[in-house]
């Protein structure tokens, strides 16, 4: 099985703890910040901790299932794996995301860091270019969450 990896870093004016808390609230937040993408996100197993399975229903009717593999409140990090999904997952066994929110020197801003690992069924059908496209989608979602926090500074 081939593996494709990517790294994404996005600076933010929002503090790392606020961003981490917002991401923990993804089932509630995602449909608010990207209503053109997410119809609903719900827990189908667990309560958000390690072992939780979330299902996102997209506006096109497709669904994605994501497991929470690791969660570290002290280091503001988590790992999740998409195990089922729409069309883009047809060429993947799984897509694992190692996410960390790193405070800047002032603790007022932060850097959003994502290391992605794509386990490919057929390496010819999921390439580094596909990983770059996935990073752009991830960045778009991050920017939507960041904008929500900036517009609602007391939310998290």
From TrEMBL:
Residues 1-141 form the Bet v I/Major latex protein domain. SMART domains: Bet_v_1. One of its GO terms (cellular component) is nucleus. GO terms for molecular function: abscisic acid binding; protein phosphatase inhibitor activity; signaling receptor activity. One of its GO terms (biological process) is abscisic acid-activated signaling pathway. InterPro entries: Bet_v_I/MLP, Bet_v_I_allergen, Plant_def-hormone_signal, START-like_dom_sf. Belongs to the BetVI family. This is Bet v I/Major latex protein domain-containing protein. It comes from Centaurea solstitialis (yellow star-thistle).
């Amino acid at each position: 099985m081939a593996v494709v990896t990517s790294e994404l870093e996005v600076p933010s004016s929002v503090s790392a703890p606020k961003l981490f808390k917002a991401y923990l609230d993804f089932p509630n937040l995602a449909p608010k910040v990207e209503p053109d993408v997410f119809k609903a996100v719900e827990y189908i197993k667990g309560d958000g901790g390690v072992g939780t399975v979330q299902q996102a229903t997209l506006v096109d009717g497709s669904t994605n299932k994501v497991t929470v593999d690791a969660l570290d409140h002290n280091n503001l990090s988590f790992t999740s794996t998409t195990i089922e999904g729409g069309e883009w997952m047809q060429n993947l066994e799984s897509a694992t995301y190692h996410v960390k929110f790193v405070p800047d020197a002032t603790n007022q801003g932060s850097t959003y860091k994502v290391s992605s690992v794509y386990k490919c069924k057929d390496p010819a059908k999921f390439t580094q270019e596909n990983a770059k496209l996935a990073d752009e989608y991830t960045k778009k979602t991050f920017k939507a969450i960041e904008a929500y926090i900036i517009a609602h500074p007391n939310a998290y």
